[in-house]
């Protein structure tokens, strides 16, 4: 695979921050005309001060290669219930020190988030206390209310609404509502266009439950970070969203000085 493929923009004017990025992709995406390979990811982490990035792709073996090569990269297991043996594959990867959770994409993989086929995976996830990031923001399978059915079925599972509803205000407000009424539901900020909704979300769902995500290479990390910085949150809460909340959720320790490693 070619190198990152997109030039890294200048970070002039980019307020320094240490970042934990809950949502990154590696691979080739011809439909979107973007790509990111291991060297590109490594450069991106360095360039933006990302101490740890959660990375995924439907080919988990490829992600394993990438996270073994790139120091700050960690994997989320892409789980597709239509794939035979998907639970066994996930369980095997959960023993890998750099796989820290699960990614579900019910829209691309075409299933209801609370399909009974997903339940055996959720039981394993609950047993290991691993977070599950679910793409959230498009009909028919990834609306916040459908993902809520899964979160209600598994109240002990930590369910992250990726993109917190994405581009539609009805879905964004719906995602915030779902996280506000379910203690086990978190929000992740990537690709959601309204900076002010990040502050509103923190206010409504609590200071620990909103996580920064870039969705690189589909979105530019600097733009996504800037959204959090200008959201209206005070500096201590900006730091929580950009770094500490994900450290706590994925690594079990929110202290910035804590080594980036699974507890
Ligand atoms: Zn994504």
What does this structure look like?
By secondary structure, the protein is an alpha/beta fold. It has one domain (about 20-250): Metal-dependent hydrolases (TIM Barrel). The chain is built from nine helices and ten strands. The chain has helices at about 40-50, 60-70, 85-95, 120-130, 145-155, 170-180, 195-205, 220-230, 235-250; strands at about 20-25, 25-30, 35, 50-55, 75-80, 100-105, 130-135, 160, 185-190, 210. A hairpin with a 4-residue loop joins strand 2 and strand 3 (about 35). Helix 3 (about 85-95) runs parallel beside helix 4 and helix 6 runs parallel beside helix 7. The longest helix is centred in the C-terminal third of the chain and has 17 residues, at about 235-250. The chain is globular. Bound molecules: zinc ion. Zinc ion (ZN) binds near residues 23, 25, 215 and 218.
């Amino acid at each position: 695979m070619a190198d990152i493929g997109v030039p890294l923009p200048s970070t002039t004017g980019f307020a320094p921050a240490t970042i934990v990025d809950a949502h990154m992709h590696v691979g080739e995406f011809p439909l979107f005309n973007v790509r990111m390979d291991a060297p590109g990811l490594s450069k991106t982490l360095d360039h933006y001060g990302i101490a740890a990035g959660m990375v995924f792709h439907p080919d988990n073996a490829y992600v394993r290669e990438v996270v073994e090569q790139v120091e700050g990269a960690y994997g989320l297991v892409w789980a597709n219930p239509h794939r035979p043996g998907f639970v066994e594959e996930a369980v095997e990867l959960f023993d890998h020190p750099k796989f820290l959770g699960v990614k579900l994409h019910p829209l691309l993989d075409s299933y209801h988030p609370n399909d009974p086929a997903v339940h055996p995976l959720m039981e394993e996830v609950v047993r290991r206390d691993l977070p599950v990031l679910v793409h959230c923001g498009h009909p028919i399978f990834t609306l916040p209310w459908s993902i809520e059915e899964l979160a209600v079925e598994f109240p002990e599972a930590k369910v992250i609404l990726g993109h917190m509803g994405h581009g539609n205000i009805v879905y964004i407000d719906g995602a915030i509502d779902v996280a506000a009424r379910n203690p086990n539901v978190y929000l992740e900020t990537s690709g959601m266009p309204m900076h002010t909704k990040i502050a509103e979300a923190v206010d409504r769902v609590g200071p620990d439950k909103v996580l920064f995500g870039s969705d690189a290479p589909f979105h530019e990390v600097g733009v996504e970070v800037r959204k959090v910085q200008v959201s209206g949150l005070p500096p201590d809460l900006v730091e929580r969203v950009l770094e500490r909340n994900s450290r706590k959720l994925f690594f079990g320790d929110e202290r910035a000085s804590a080594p980036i490693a699974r507890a």
